[in-house]
Amino acid sequence: MTWLESRPPERIAGDGVVLQRAHADHIDGLVEAVQESLPELQRWMPWAIDDYGPAEAREWQQGCDDQWPAGGGFAYVILEDDRIVGTVGLINRLEPGWLEIGYWVRTPSTGKRLARRATAALIEATRTHLPEVEGVAIHHAVGNDASRSVPIGLDFVYVGESEPTPDRPFQQVTEAVWRLPLL
Ligand SMILES: CC(C)(COP(=O)(O)OP(=O)(O)OC[C@H]1O[C@@H](n2cnc3c(N)ncnc32)[C@H](O)[C@@H]1OP(=O)(O)O)[C@@H](O)C(=O)NCCC(=O)NCCS
């Protein structure tokens, strides 16, 4: 992870959204948002188990806290009017120079381009604060049409499909890969 030495801001203001570094204070709001979104999340996110609760949210937040100083990833809650409506983050698991972006949005809040607006704000912050980043990528399950609209709407370039491989143990299905060069 040594290629990435810069760190992004803990708070990023976007178009009608604020991204705030995931913090222990967000646990209750996260659990509520996940529980409300389980049917949709479970179609695509293996971590969205039936009885997702505070222990799972705490474990996720603790992992994010550990990764931030190490440059392993930067996770944010998405806030709309101070309410948690999802998460978005940069993940350092591609080749040096490239970061992957992941996101999910609370089901009753979908359809308002929150994912697109949150991702756009994160990309802008990446351009400004992480000068060693050459570009960002979005990987989504083939068939996840709602997710696909995010890279399309932000002018990512379609790279192709990628099959699960041993160097991506977290990937379980065939993914569509999109990239946006920043330099
Ligand atoms: C994918 C997800 C983040 C989209 O969030 P969102 O804030 O509603 O996204 P946006 O409003 O920016 O875009 C939604 C787009 O998908 C389209 N869409 C929504 N549901 C759709 C569906 N079932 N099939 C096709 N398109 C769909 C909308 O029409 C919209 O398209 P447009 O921007 O061209 O008008 C959200 O649905 C979600 O969290 N899903 C579950 C978790 C997930 O899939 N995360 C991504 C993993 S890669």
| Averaged pLDDT | 97
Q: What can be said about the biggest beta sheet?
A: 8 strands, mixed
CATH homologous superfamily identity: Gcn5-related N-acetyltransferase (GNAT)
The unique ligands bound to this protein are:
coenzyme A
CATH topology: Aminopeptidase
The total beta strand count reads 8
Backbone structural class: alpha+beta
Q: Spatial order of the strands in the main sheet?
A: 1-2-3-4-5-6-8-7
GO cellular component, one term: cytoplasm
Protein name: GCN5-related N-acetyltransferase
Pfam families: Acetyltransf_3 (PF13302)
Organism: Euzebya pacifica
What secondary-structure arrangement, pairings included, does this model have?
Layout: E1 11-13, E2 18-21, H1 27-36, H2 38-41, H3 54-70, E3 73-80, E4 83-91, E5 98-105, H4 114-129, E6 135-141, H5 145-153, E7 157-162, E8 175-181
Parallel strand pairs: 5-6
Antiparallel strand pairs: 1-2, 2-3, 3-4, 4-5, 6-8, 7-8
Helix pairs in contact: 1-3
The protein binds coenzyme A.
Coenzyme A binds at residues 40-41, 44-45, 103-105, 110-116, 140, 144-147, 149-150, 153.
